[in-house]
Amino acid sequence: MTTNSQSQAVTGPDIITFGETMALLMPSNGKGLEYSSELHSLFGGAESNVAIGVSRLGGKVGWFGRLGKDPMGRLIYKKIRGEGVDVSRAELTAEAPTGLMMREMIMGKTSVYYYRKNSAASQMSAKHLDEGYIAGAKILHITGITPALSESCKEAAFEAVRLARKHGVKVSFDPNLRLKLWGIDEARPVLLELAKLSDIFLPGLDELKLLYQTEDWDVIVGKLRELSAVSIVKGGENETYVVTKDSITAVPYFKAEQVVDTVGAGDGFCAGFLVGLSKEYDYAEAVRIGNLVGSLIVQTEGDWEGAPTWEQVDAILNDVKHIER
């Protein structure tokens, strides 16, 4: 990642995002971590999951962040680059290691354990932002995970939003509330402030109940309508909601044939939704694409491995029959 104080836009991806991507270890045999002698080595991070999803769908996308100059950092860098994501502003540093997360699923419930304190990504700051790179994009996508990592990461997130707004770049914000990283009382004011600064707000319904401290849907809608953003509310019983100043549109889910791994569903949704917007679909149709991508992601193990291509999505949307032979 390079520092660039120049305000002139550079030619680059239409959609950019940044944040921490970590090595991921998972049991290979369905046992809990405590009882498993074999682990799959994967990687994941909300923002890079979105970036890979966008790239698979044919979008021009860039991801940047800081990774340790270690085996997992180099693997992650090469894998993301290999998925067609621009990583020209990403950095491998010897100053700190790549973060690690471990995940297990026991009795249908997923548990994640983080080892990311003092990681390379947690040391990111506003000085690592390239203003010209941000200025050249159409959409900056951020999540609430980055400001939870450290004070300098929080400053970087707000500075990235400021730069985007300065240059007329739309800001997409998924709060991605992680209570293992910070408490709700610390997170609430930060996430609500980022929501106010965004053009597109992508919360889950459960997150909104915590952020607004109410279970009342009408109160939540009222709060969302105080924002300047269009709000896309994930996690309804059977649909995703598009909430604007004067309307609510419910967009039905796509049924998953099988659910293997639910982690990454929200990131897949964001990828599909953002690609839909980049193709100039209206919000409801972009949400429909997001719903479909999310339903496909959960049918494969891993955070991003099940991300579909645009051809696969288009075939399902248009009910194109698969010819096996």
From TrEMBL:
InterPro entries: Carb_kinase_PfkB-like (IPR052700), Carboh/pur_kinase_PfkB_CS (IPR002173), PfkB_dom (IPR011611), Ribokinase-like (IPR029056). Keywords: Kinase, Transferase. Signal peptide: none annotated. GO terms for molecular function: kinase activity. Residues 15-309 form the Carbohydrate kinase PfkB domain. It comes from the Bacteria. Belongs to the carbohydrate kinase PfkB family. This is Sugar kinase. It comes from Paenibacillus violae. The lineage of its organism: Bacteria, Bacillati, Bacillota, Bacilli, Bacillales.
